[in-house]
Design a protein that fits this description.
Length: 395
Amino acid sequence: MNNIAANVNSVFQENFSSTPHLYYSPGRINFIGEHVDYNDGFVMPAAIDKGIYYAIALNNTEELNFHSIDFKEDLTIKVADIKKLTGWKNYVLSVVNEFVLLGLRVRGFDCVFGGTIPNGAGMSSSAAVEGGLAFAINELLHFGLSRKELALLCQRAEHNFPGVQVGIMDMYANIMGKKNHVILLDCRTIEHQYLPLELSGYKVVLINSNVHHSLASSEYNVRRRQCEEGLLIMKEEMNITSFRDIRKPENLLTIKDKVSEEVYMRCLYVVQEIYRTQQAAKFLQQNNLVEFGKLMFATHAGLSKLYQVSCNELDFLVELARENAGVIGSRLMGGGFGGCTINIMEEEAAENFLSTTTVAYQKKFQVNPEVFEVQIVDGTHSITQLQKISAGSSI
Ligand code: GLA
């Protein structure tokens, strides 16, 4: 049996008397389309085999009992007393609160969770915590919300108690992921299509800079505001309603003198990234991973120079990747200011690249980077049949 799932299951049995339902809730990667989900753009995420496991059972009371294995902390609270607290507690309580806000009667449950996503690595452990719990509550209490409704509920939850104004990408990937496919999500319409990812000869590897993105949530909200500010001027000057209506980056020159240099750079990045993601989707459909990868490098340059959400460590990792012919695409992934780079590399080049990168990074920053090869898996799902995971699958 998968060790983590088994552990979550047994910690539950030690603490509570009933038999729990088990769920797997994945973290996510994003190939391209960064910081555009809240700007009506396109994103290309996928659910991965690093995630959160939940063991959960109704307890016939009005009380919620949580135990976080990773934080070694408990929380007991009545549904009627739910309020904003701190840390992980805000994520789980905010999810429950969103069901309550919909007028649904949440009953008490016991819940143990723990996972394999490194904290602050940009693989969206928060969406995994939220998505797994939302999915489980919806199923156990027969609320009948669709997967898309659950993703939107989790997004509202993250806006509410944790107070981070995230876009829809992470929750969507968590809940809608499909094995061996990327999700091409149109964040304007919240409609998606699945594109198969044929990796023959290549692998997807994350390199964790181990820089914890502590700036991420405050700077994230700043970026959002800067984009909103730019959009407001664009609406006045250019007769458009969304970043999507700007067909060519040159058209942005209309507002160059009317906004600060920073706001202009943010908007330019967004318009370019929306265009790049559509190009990338075409290359993926043609199975042209090499051209796809070049766009990933271009995204990194934009995130670093125009959107300014990178850091020396991430720039260094991407530079090493760029210098290695076996790596066809690399960029920082997620909100930025630390966390991981996502890399597509030739299988044969991987070992050598990863060991030289590890040594060079260690030497420059006196920090060990972590390397994760990731597999693309289905979105949040029940794993009640434990034999399934004992049969060798990593989830
Ligand atoms: C975080 C947010 C997402 C998205 C990315 C940047 O992961 O949760 O909504 O905006 O940053 O692309």
